C-alpha cells in the first residue's frame, strides 16, 4: 500500500484558507499536510479570541482528525491481527498474542488522540 509513511500528527492552529484565515486541525507527517479539518464547518465550535466565532477548537473536528491520523496504525494493527488469526501472512511470520495486543492498543490509543 502506498501512503505517507511515518508518524501522523494532529495540531490545531490558524492557517491561510482559500479566501481568508481559518482555524482547524491539521493532520501531517514529516512536514507534509495530509488533511485539514476547518472548524468553521462544525457546530459547537468554541470562539477564537483573535478571529471570533467559528474559528476556535471543536471536539468533533479534533476527534475526526485523530481518526484520520490513526489510519496507518490501525491498518498495521489489522494486518497483525489477520496474520495472528492465520488469515494473512505476507511476511511468513506469525506474531504472538502479546505483539497483537500491543499493536491493537497502540492503534486504539492513536484513534482516541492519546
Account of the 3D structure:
It is a single chain. The chain has 114 residues and is α+β, with helices and mostly antiparallel strands. It folds into 2 domains: 55 residues, no CATH class; 45 residues. Helices cover 35% and strands 21% of the residues. It has 3 helices and 3 strands. A 3-stranded antiparallel β-sheet has the order 1-2-3. Helix 2 packs antiparallel against helix 3. The radius of gyration is 18 Å and the shape is elongated. It starts with 8 loop residues before the first strand and ends with a helix. 19% of the residues are buried. The mean pLDDT is 77.
Please give a handful of descriptors for the protein shown.
single chain, 114 residues, alpha+beta, 2 domains, three-stranded antiparallel beta sheet, 3 helices, 3 strands, 21% strand
SSE map:
Layout: E1 9-16, E2 21-29, E3 32-38, H1 59-69, H2 71-84, H3 97-111
Antiparallel strand pairs: 1-2, 2-3
Overall structural class, as computed from helix and strand content, comes to alpha+beta
Number of strands: 3
The 3D shape can be described as: elongated
Radius of gyration: 18 Å
The side-by-side strand order for the widest beta sheet comes to 1-2-3
Outline the low-pLDDT stretches. none
State the share of residues found in helices, binned by percent.
25-40%
Amino acid at each position: 500500500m502506498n501512503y505517507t509513511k511515518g508518524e501522523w500528527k494532529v495540531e490545531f492552529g490558524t492557517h491561510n484558507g482559500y479566501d481568508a484565515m481559518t482555524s482547524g486541525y491539521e493532520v501531517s507527517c514529516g512536514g507534509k499536510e495530509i488533511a485539514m479539518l476547518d472548524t468553521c464547518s462544525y457546530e459547537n465550535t468554541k470562539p477564537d479570541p483573535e478571529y471570533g466565532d467559528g474559528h476556535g477548537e471543536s471536539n468533533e473536528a479534533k476527534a475526526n482528525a485523530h481518526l484520520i491520523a490513526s489510519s496507518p496504525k490501525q491498518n498495521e494493527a489489522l494486518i497483525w491481527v489477520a496474520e495472528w488469526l492465520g488469515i494473512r501472512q505476507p511476511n511468513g511470520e506469525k506474531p504472538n498474542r502479546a505483539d497483537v495486543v500491543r499493536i491493537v492498543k497502540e492503534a486504539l490509543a492513536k484513534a482516541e488522540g492519546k
